[in-house]
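Quick log. Single chain, no ligands specified.
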Amino acid sequence: MNLDQALQTFIVESHDLLQGMEDGLLAISPDGDNTEAINAIFRAAHTIKGSAGLFGLDDIVAFTHVVESVLDKVRAGKLEIGADMVELLLSCGDHIATLVDGIAAGENTLSEDDRAAGTTLVGMLSAYLDAPKEALKKHLPPPSEAQLETLNGASVATDNWHISLRFNPDVLRNGMDPLSFIRYLGTLGRIVGISTLCDALPPAREMDPESCYFGYEISFHSDADKATIEGVFEFVHDDSLIRILPPKSHIEDYLHL
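-> predicted structure:
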C-alpha cells in the first residue's frame, strides 16, 4: 500500500471512528453505567491521534490529544461526564471531522476560522484539565531594587524576539514532540540562536525516558506579532511555561524572566 492509499484509509477509518464516538456520546446515560461507552469513545480518540501522528498531521494530533486527555480523566473517575461535557465533546468530534476533511481535500494549512474554532474548543476543554504551571516554576529571587535602579529603563539593542520555553515534563507522555513546535516556529521567521538548558536533568539512574527535562531559550527574528508567535504553542500553553519578550525589551524584563 503506497502513502496515498494509506492516507485514504486513515480518512475513511477516522470518519468511522468519529461516528462511533458520536454514537457513544449520544448513548451516555446520566443514571446508567457508561463505562463501556466511555472506553470506546476514548479508544476512538486515541486511535485517531495515533494514526494522525504516523502521517505527521500535527493539527489533528494536538487537538485530539486534548480531547483524549479529558476522556482519560473521565475514564479514571476523576471527572463526571454530564450533558455539558457531552455537548462539548460532540462539537470536538465535528471539529476533528473538519480537520480530516481538510486533509482529504489536500489542504495543508488550517483556515483562520478553523484555527479559531479549535482554539475556542481547546479553551473549553482546558477547563476540565489541571494546569500544573506552578510545579514548573523556578523559585528564583527577583532582581533587587538596586539592580533595577542601575538599569534605569535601558533596553536591549536587538531586533529579535526572545522566547523562553519550559515544557511540562509530561509533554512526551502526552503525545507531543517539543521539537515539532520549534520547527513550526521556524515557518514564521528565522531562529537566530537556540540554547538547550539541562538544569532540570536528574542523575542518570533517576531519569524517566518518557519525561521531558529540557528547556529552551530562543532568539527569533520575525515580522509576526506576539499573538501569532504565541499561537504556535497554543496546544501546550496551559501546562507549560512560555515567556515571550519582544524586540528591544528592557533589560529588567530579561532579569525578571
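Residues 131-141 have pLDDT under 50 and may be disordered.
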